[in-house]
Amino acid sequence: MLVFFFSQKGKELRGQNGKFLSESESTRDRKFEKAIVQKGYNQAKHRLENQKYSLQHSIHKERTDIFLIKGIQAIEYTNENMGY
Question: Is residue 6 helix, strand or coil?
Fold first, then answer.
C-alpha cells in the first residue's frame, strides 16, 4: 500500500520513504494505486457475478426438483386411483 505525506511548508508530495517525489514518480505512483483499486473492483465484480450464477443455478435446480416431486406425486396419485 502506498502512503503519501504532505509537508506543511511547501505542500510537496513525499513518498513512503520520506523522499520528495518527482512529478513522474508521483504520477506513476498514482497510476499504480489506481490500478490496485481497479484490480480489487474487478475481483469483487467477478465474485458477485459468480455468486449470481450460482444462485441462478440453485434456483433452477430447486424448480427442477419441485417439478420432479410434483410429477412423482401425480404418478403415485394416478396409480392409487387406477388400482395399480
Answer: strand
3-class secondary structure, 28: helix
CA–CA separation, 80 and 84 (whole Å): 6
Domain count, the chain: 1
Residues in CB range of 62: below 8 A, 6 or more apart? none
**What is the mean pLDDT for each group of 10 consecutive residues in the chain (84 residues)?**
48 56 70 86 90 86 83 84 71
Give the Cα separation of 20 and 55 in Å (integer): 51
pTM: 0.42
- Residue-range definition of the domain harbouring residue 44: 5-82
> Which residues lie below 8 Å from residue 17, measured CB to CB, with a gap of 6+?
none
Three-state secondary structure call for residue 31: helix
Say how many C-beta atoms besides its own lie within 10 A of residue 45's C-beta. Answer: 10
